[in-house]
């Protein structure tokens, strides 16, 4: 069987905390309906946070009929007004959005921060982005993810007319807590609740776009015990209905 390398995540290394960091190791696709049916053009769009600087979100596009053609991939260089400028040179890539430099108390973000989810909302005719930051002043950049961190995730939401922006922030919570805190017997309580991997369901959109569902996972209970050999409360599916108030 012939193997074709279309996209290799260890390219254009840049230094970070004594290691080589790469951009394209955690890719999120722009959710444009089933089979890209709601797309406004013939491209597939992808996002990936820069590991050397997790406040910067890179972007890629490729014609949907050329996904296996490596030479067809382009990288966002900059956004001028509402127009995106693309380049075939990966080293010249820019950012579609710059997230906050630090959390609310000045701590740096950990490597697991600002992995976005972008969904096209046809009722509102807007692209909605949710993303999150994880921080802990007692950990270095690569030392961990959100397990046993001092803070719950920082969560933000943005909207834009185009997949590349420009993005307008409409929600930001420095320390987001689940609407219903888990019980203490799970191994963590409200003050130590750990929520991460936020997503917006691309299918559950109602009321002409005014209602969507936010999905996330728990991370922070005891790792030992439980019938599966670890806490049965890790990686639990959670969801909450969100309603947009239009202005």
Secondary structure category = mainly beta
Shape: globular
- Whole-Å distance between the termini? 55 Å
Largest pleated sheet: 6 strands, antiparallel
* Unreliable segments of 5+ consecutive residues: 187-191
Proportion of residues in helical segments: under 10%
**Mean pLDDT across every amino acid position:** 85
Write down the Rg. 19 Å
Helix and strand element order: EEEEEEEEEEEEEEE
Number of helices: 0
Number of E-type strands = 15
**Strand residue percentage:** 35-45%
What is this structure, in a nutshell?
The chain is mainly beta. It contains no helices and 15 strands.
List the helices and strands and how they pair.
Elements: E1 14-16, E2 19-21, E3 27-29, E4 43-50, E5 53-63, E6 74-80, E7 83-87, E8 97-98, E9 117-121, E10 126-133, E11 154-160, E12 168-173, E13 195-200, E14 211-218, E15 237-243
Antiparallel strand pairs: 1-2, 3-4, 4-5, 5-6, 5-8, 6-7, 9-10, 10-11, 11-12, 13-14, 14-15
Please describe what this structure looks like.
It is a single chain. The radius of gyration is 19 Å and the shape is globular. Helices cover 0% and strands 36% of the residues. The protein has 247 residues and is mostly beta strands. Residues 187-191 have low confidence and may be disordered.
List keywords for this structure.
36% strand, six-stranded antiparallel β-sheet, 15 strands, mainly beta, 247 residues, four-stranded antiparallel β-sheet, globular, single chain
């Amino acid at each position: 069987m012939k193997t074709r390398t279309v996209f290799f995540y260890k390219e254009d290394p840049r230094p970070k905390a004594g290691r080589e960091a790469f951009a394209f190791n955690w890719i999120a696709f722009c959710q444009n309906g089933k089979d890209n049916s709601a797309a406004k053009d013939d491209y597939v769009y992808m996002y990936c946070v820069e590991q050397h600087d997790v406040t910067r979100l890179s972007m890629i596009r490729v014609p949907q009929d050329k996904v296996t053609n490596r030479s067809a991939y382009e990288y966002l260089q900059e956004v001028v007004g509402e127009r995106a400028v693309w380049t075939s040179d990966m080293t010249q890539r820019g950012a579609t959005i710059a997230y906050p430099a630090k959390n609310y108390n000045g701590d740096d973000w950990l490597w697991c921060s600002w992995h976005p989810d972008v969904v096209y909302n046809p009722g509102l005719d807007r692209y909605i982005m949710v993303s999150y930051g994880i921080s802990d002043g007692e950990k270095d950049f690569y030392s961990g993810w959100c397990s046993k961190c001092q803070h719950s995730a920082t969560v933000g939401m943005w909207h834009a007319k185009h997949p590349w922006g420009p993005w307008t922030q409409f929600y930001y919570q420095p320390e987001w807590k689940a609407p219903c805190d888990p019980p203490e017997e799970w191994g963590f309580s409200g003050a130590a609740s750990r929520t991460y991997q936020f997503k917006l369901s691309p299918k559950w959109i109602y009321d002409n776009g005014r209602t969507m569902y936010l999905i996330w996972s728990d991370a922070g209970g005891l790792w030992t015990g439980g019938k599966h050999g670890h806490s049965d409360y890790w990686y639990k599916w959670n969801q909450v209905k969100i309603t947009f108030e239009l202005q």
